[in-house]
Write the structure tokens for this entry.
Amino acid sequence: MKKLYTLVCACIAVSTAFSQVVQNGDFESWGLETYYRDPSNFGSSNPQAYYLNGSINVTRIGNAQQGSYAARLETVVAYGDTIPGSIFIGTPDQNGVAGGIPHTDLPDSVVAYVRYNLMPGDTGFVGVAWKSGGQLVAQSFGFLTGSATNWTRISTPVTSGTTTVDTLVAFISSANVLSDAVGTPGSYLEIDNIQLIGSSQPFPNGTLEGWTDINSEEPANWTTFNLITTVLNLPNSVTKSSDAHGGNFAASIKTADINGDTLGFLTNGNIGEDGPLGGMPVNANPKTLSGFYKYTPVGPDTAVCALVSYRYDALSGNTMALDSVFISLPPTAGYTNFSASLMYNTFPYADTLAIVFSSSNMNDSTSYMGIGSELLIDDLSLEYYPVGVEENDSEIKVLVYPNPATDNFYIEYAAGQGNLQFELYNVIGSLVMSQQINATNAGKQIIHTNNLHKGIYLYTLVHGDKRVAGKIEITE
């Protein structure tokens, strides 16, 4: 009996709550992150695809029609949204394409070389247009259907009511943007060697030989909106600051107005259209995130911190949100400690934690958000709930062995504990076994595992308000 009690006490000692540093929670690690490359002089659909899917849908390819490189545009799905592959000169908006590149010599026609495979009902689009004084005055549109496995020359005439132009814009896509089509996933269009016939001025980077890396300095293990500001050649909303609580650096988050959208956001996951996705892996239920912050608002603004714990459910194939918390970070001139706590501590255990900071109250679209509000974050740490036994549950005296187990394992128990309710769960939280054990007298109970798949299982033994929990591995 003394041996059993000693082992139980050892179990209690290793099951108390523990704390660990959040990945790059001290913000000492920063690096130049290259998101992707775009053809020079062109914008692309890559920012949208990269943010939603973590991958791009406009790529540089070899086996070009002329020179070393061509562009491949592909329609993809990201979190339920269909994104056609597109490149453009100018800035697409609700009225067409704004801006553009200076160009004063109007051609007779536009020629390009293409390879493509468009899904049934899909239409590829190659459009070039010219402006004069900001107004569209000439255009050349080409439409593609079906497929062409070899480089194929297409030529479209330029229709115009004038010969005086000052700006060129273009839009090339694996879907027909004139009909507001989003296309069908799997459709692709490859393009190279775009030429302006009858013009003394070439098409800008028409050979697709020039490509530009899109990059910015980012905190390791964190995601920002810096991709958007980088693409628009604006100051980044998240930067490295030497005004640190500890070490050399902290993360500075500033609220910015980017084409009507208010940005000032930092997360350890990804950024979807409805908020943060993913996060850092965890192997126990997160309890409390702590750290230090400074906040200088513009106007009556409020910074925020949010936590969301998740678990992937293998049976349904879906990720479940288990718990969330949202706290305000009021103004403070000096570094101030903060903490945010989650309440969830049951089966199934969380496997992912999303951490989110914003320099403005973006939880409510009606809240005031001050452009220029700055939030500094540093020295984050995370405390977890115990995986095993809490000390005040230690009156349940059991030993579960062997671990790992094959055909069976034993629950050895001390006398005087009454009826213990034993339950066994798989790692996604499904109850696979339940039985009552009479622990009035000392003894042991055999648990047969013949009908269980190999893997990790979670068990609980409960008597009244006393509870013990642990893990056991079943091997074949």
